[in-house]
Amino acid sequence: MNIERFTGQVCIVTGAAQGIGLATARRLASEGAQVFALDISEPTEIVEGVRWIRCDVTSQQQWQASVAGVVAEAGPVDVLVNNAGGVGSYDELADISTADWDRVIMLNQSSVFYGMQAVLPSMIARSTGSIVNVSSMWGIIGTAGVAAYQASKGAVTMMTKNAAATYASRGVRVNSVHPGFIWTPMTVAQDADISQGLVEKTPMARAGLTSEVAASIAFLASQDASFVTGVQLLVDGGFTTV
Length: 242
Ligand code: NAI
Hints:
The protein is built from seven helices and seven strands, in the order E-H-E-E-H-E-H-E-H-E-H-H-H-E.
């Protein structure tokens, strides 16, 4: 089946140099989108239809400049996927340093605020637009340790619901995707015991693929989800069902 849900659309995907972001950029481009990959790192793969822009998403000034560049080159932004993020620190609340806390909150939470604020005015003005924020299953259920990551991903869940409620009547949809354990460079880099433990606790008894998360992001970003806003779509192989 050849689906072309994003023909003529301008899409921004952050953290698209690798992992879930790269798979999402590839999926949107394969469906006709003109995709701009905003990342602090160079892309690990060249994908047709995807243009890379160096942007540190923790900088509001770089966000504004990047979005202005996209608009000047391709026109107003139809879809924003706030995907860039990372665990940053495995420390628990009693131990985490203020510097680590601030760094993780900036990367996972403030970046989502900057991104939404950069695109919302033109989406509201055009009464159209779709934003997908990548949170985590740890943005919905509790776990031990990773205090700043959990706090930031929980915040993304509620920032998404807040924006959905605020802008629903103005034509902008805002949803979040919550991956379970997915094999990406981020999880390859972490302690193998943590990864193995997560796979063992996943009812489907395997890790998810980046393409499986990308498919869910593409659904929410597309007109197939035209009556869907403010949802938390778990892509976790059933992890949170038990
Ligand atoms: P990854 O580490 O493989 O890729 C993250 C990308 O973000 C990289 O390309 C990196 O260069 C970019 N990035 C990092 N800091 C940046 C900055 N300041 N500005 C711009 N770009 C920056 O990560 P992965 O696994 O693909 O994760 C993507 C998202 O999915 C993250 O928000 C992560 O928290 C979330 N997630 C991932 C899960 C997993 O199991 N892989 C599970 C749940 C959520």
